[in-house]
Amino acid sequence: MTHNLAALLSSVVSRFYITLILFLSFQFTFLFWVDPEHFLAYIILSVLVFMILVFVMSLLIRTNFFLQAQHKLDSDHVMLTFDDGPHPINTHRTLDILKEKGVKAMFFLIGKNVEQYPDVVERIVQEGHLVGGHSYSHQFSFGFIMGRELNREILRTQKILSEITGQEEKYFRPPFGVTNAHIAYVVKAHALKTIGWSLRTYDTATDFTSKKINQIIQKTRRGSIVLLHERMDSTCDALPLLIDGIRNKGMEFGLLTPRNETAK
Ligand SMILES: [Zn+2]
């Protein structure tokens, strides 16, 4: 009963708003017991704690704090995802490998790169892979912009992608995996489907050594969504070994939903 109520509540309001409501209720209750002398210090401290909590949670997409994202497949398959493309050389390299290995994957593309290399996106789609938006410019300040600017940053890419693929592209992955109440608002208002990950390879931080390839293979589970960046040469180099290693564990690759099925 309690669980059902919690599920119902979180389907209507995000965990962020539930936390905010609880925080304000506690504030009103506890303020009666606070010594008037320490009133201001109490307010400053508690607001600071709340702001730190919100900041930390904005970096943890897997907590579904601000919005519900999908971090695992519903099936037993493993999905490889490639962020920050299209890249004029490495995306083709990646597509060649995926074709040779018979693997379908998902690409989260940056709008300004899509404008520069639309032919690469066309190839991605033609070869049966899924695409999603990954903001227009992937700016470092993505977590701090709001209103019209945020709207444009997210929706412009979804629109460019939809024009290329000829169907409404609803999949979205926020740059840096950052989420907040503003991003959640845009996602909800435009019925975007946010895709996170369950396995981060940190391939932009350190190169794929054979040790790292083995670690990733070991950590891969049924239903895993693996986060990769094909713009990194070492990721392209490691890809065939990664695919073979995961297959040797008896796992196969799959997508969220095949193309042409409407994304909800
Ligand atoms: Zn990215």
TrEMBL record:
Gene3D superfamilies on file: Glycoside hydrolase/deacetylase
Classification via CDD domains: CE4_NodB_like_6s_7s
Keywords, sorted A to Z: Hydrolase, Membrane, Metal-binding, Transmembrane, Transmembrane helix
Residues annotated as domain NodB homology: 76-254
Transmembrane segments: 12-33, 39-61
A Pfam family of this chain: Polysacc_deac_1
Protein name: Polysaccharide deacetylase family protein
